[in-house]
Structure formats: C-alpha cells, structure tokens
Amino acid sequence: MTKNAQSAPLPALAPGTALIDTHCHLDFPDYQADLAQVLDRAREAGVARIVTVGIDLPTSRAAVELAARHPTLFATVGVHPHHVKELAATDYARLRELARHPRVVAYGEIGLDYVKDYSPPAMQREHFSRQVRLAADLALPLVIHDREAHADTMAILREAMPLPAGGVMHCFSGDAAFAEEVLALGFYISIPGVVTFPKAEAMQEAVRQVPLERLLLETDGPFLAPVPRRGKRNEPQLLLHTAQKVAELKGIPLDEVARATTANAERLFRLKEKGHVDR
Ligand SMILES: [Zn+2]
Ligand SMILES: [Zn+2]
Question: What integer pLDDT is reported at residue 21 of this predicted model?
Fold first, then answer.
C-alpha cells in the first residue's frame, strides 16, 4: 500500500509558505523501507519540519537519533499510556537524560487511553502524573494523548498547574465544549486527519470554534491518513489535506492556516529560541 503515495493530488502552498507536522512516528517500522522518500515528499509538499514522537524508551531514543541526523526533524521523549506497564523505576533517570538532548522540543506522548486499556488505568494515571512533573521540571511542553479519558486527563493536568511551558492536546478527539476546557488550560489543540472524515462533525465544529492562534496540525503517521488517502499509510506530505480541510472549515485561505499553525508550533516548541529556524 506504499507505492502510490503521490497519486492523490495534494493542495499546493504558496512559495515561501510551509507547514509543520507536529506529531508523527517516523521511527515506526512502517517507514523503515522508504523514510528518505517520505522526507523528500514532505519537503516537496511544503511540510518543512516534522516532530517525531516517542511512545516508550526505545522509540524515544530512536526519535532523538532521527532528529540528531536530520535538521528538519525534532523529537519528543515520553512513555505512552499503552506502554507504562513496561516502565521500570530506573527508566525515569534515562528519560530525564534523553529529554535534555538539544533536539528534544517536548515531553510526550503521555496521557490516558481508556479505549484499549493496554496498561491498567490506575497505573496509567500514576505514570501520567509522574511524567507531567518530570516535564515541568525539565521546562518542556507536554504532548498529551487522551482517548475516552477527558475528565481524568484534565484533573491530572489541572492539579499540576501552573505548567509554564504549556502543551498540546494531540490528535484532538473532543467536541467544542472540551476544546474550551483545553484552551482554558492554555494548551494548544492539534488537529489530525480525522477532521476530513465525513462523520467527524463534532471535531469540525471544534475547529470552527477554536481560535486559529491555538491550532496545530498533525498527521499522527503512520495512522489516521486523511481523505482521500483514508485507510492507507499516513505520512507527513498528507498534512496538506488536513490543512486544506481546516481552511475550508474556517473559511480562510490555505496559506493563512499554514502561516498561523507554523507560528503556533514555533511558539509552543520554542523552535526559534532553540535556533531551529531551518527551512
Ligand atoms: Zn496518541
Ligand atoms: Zn502518536
């Protein structure tokens, strides 16, 4: 299913305009065979920078290694709720050390997932809280994963306030009312390709309501490819379809979505302060 990644026409950005894919898992086996081409296609489409996200200790390490090799990639470090049951007490020191790498721009993805319950919920909450405190200690913004766990996720974040480095609710899956709560925390909301699915009406309404200054875009590749590539492997170039949908929902030009969401990602991840202005 990887062959015809260029067969669906991509919306085009104006010259000098670019997007940032704020959440992708480039170290996953899905990209092993053709990562160089995936990155080339992203660049050609105007997805100039990509944040590659860790979900456990080995993938966090892989994310940092990728970001260290490619000037357009940045990394996050953290343990996903699915994987917290594999965490050993000594792993926290390793996570802390890894998170200090200069290419690490956020801590995550961390949070709660009550859909799959791969790790027991109480254990998920304990490690979520603990990682929130670690990120605060490191002054890193948070990348939050929340599936069917809105109330507990918000309770843990509120308890940890203030979190001066802020964070993002990645792969936002709530409605406009939940978006309000997330915004009230000072967090950003990251919109995945799901927003292009016809049944994603609640998310589409949330996109209409949330100020453009608080939105980020992500693929969450290799998962959740947007229409017209739904069901196929996702990859950063397909972020253009998601950006186009957001532009339609907001009734503004695609380039305005690109400029705003890029500025938002630069602000949250402090890309300029860190000298990461590479285009
Ligand atoms: Zn996630
Ligand atoms: Zn993810």
Answer: 98
Instruction: Say what the pLDDT of residue 7 is.
Output: 62
Q: Which ligand is nearest to the CA of 147?
A: 1
Segments of the chain with pLDDT less than 50: 1-6, 278-279
pLDDT score for 262? 98
Distance in Å, CA 218 to ligand 2 centroid = 9
Please give the pLDDT value at position 275.
58
Judged by its nearest atom, the ligand closest to the C-alpha of residue 219 is 2
- pTM attached to this predicted model: 0.95
Where are the chain's structural domains? 19-268
Task: Enumerate the β-bridge partners of residue 142.
Answer: 107, 167
Residue 91 CA, ligand 2 centroid: distance in Å: 20
From the CA of 171, the nearest ligand is 1
- What is the 116 CA–ligand 2 centroid distance (Å)? 14
Write out the chain in H/E/C secondary structure.
Answer: CCCCCCCCCCCCCCCCCCEEEEEECCCCHHHCCCHHHHHHHHHHHCEEEEEECCCCHHHHHHHHHHHHHCCCEEEEECCCHHHHHHCCCCHHHHHHHHHCCCCEEEEEEEEEECCCCCCCHHHHHHHHHHHHHHHHHCCCCEEEEEECCHHHHHHHHHHHCCCCCCEEECCCCCCHHHHHHHHHCCCEEEECHHHHCCCCHHHHHHHHHCCHHHEEECCCECCCCCCCCCCCCCCHHHHHHHHHHHHHHHCCCHHHHHHHHHHHHHHHCCCCCCCCCCC
Q: Which CATH class is domain 19-268?
A: alpha beta
What pLDDT is stored for residue 3 in this prediction?
A: 47
